[in-house]
Amino acid sequence: MINTIVAAIYERLWRPVGVAAFGLYGLSAQKEREEAAERLRLRGNQQVLDVACGPGNFTNFFGSQLSGDGIAVGFDISRPMIAQAVRDNRSSHAAYVRGDARRLPFDDATFDAVCCYAALYLVPDPFVVVDEMLRVLAPGGRIAIMTSYGSEIAPIHAALSLGAKTIGVRIFDRSTFPAIFTAAGLVDIKQQTRGTAQYVSAHRL
């Protein structure tokens, strides 16, 4: 993801391959963005953080759902991805910051919505990243993630985990993120699985 070529082909080639690998056949990029915005309940003057934003396709869409002083901030550690995002997906409601998601450079309770799609299974310390996402989520805000999911059937889960490990990808089980959100005091926790992907969202009181 820190490669200039990957950044350039991400939406046209890399993402479609990923969609097939996750078993998300029939789910278009537009539909996935719309579902993410719905899970986050985006509107008006909200401050939104898109962690591991890549080339900014989700960030820009999130910004299009806002008005007034609302802004979607795309955050990524990859210079090529941020450069691509600034070229292709900057707008009056979308901006980009480069940095390490394990140490988000934002104050506590800054954002009304925080999102991380298709990245937690790639990063070195995913639970540190989630803790940081929760730290910057304001009261009344919503969080949404999309990440990997291993089958509840033990042999299939083991096979998926082994295959993922060989290519440097982590497989999460069904209970991990709902348990983290519950422990953090979040409510209205919703989870959906599709193929080898899981979508989890929650609300902070």
TrEMBL record:
A molecular function GO annotation: S-adenosylmethionine-dependent methyltransferase activity
CDD domains hit by this protein: AdoMet_MTases
Alphabetical keyword list: Methyltransferase, Transferase
Nucleotidyltransferase as UniProt keyword: no
Stored InterPro entries: Methyltransf_11 (IPR013216), SAM-dependent_MTases_sf (IPR029063)
Domain of life: Bacteria
Organism, scientific name: Antrihabitans cavernicola
Keyword set includes Cell division: no
Descriptive protein name: Methyltransferase domain-containing protein
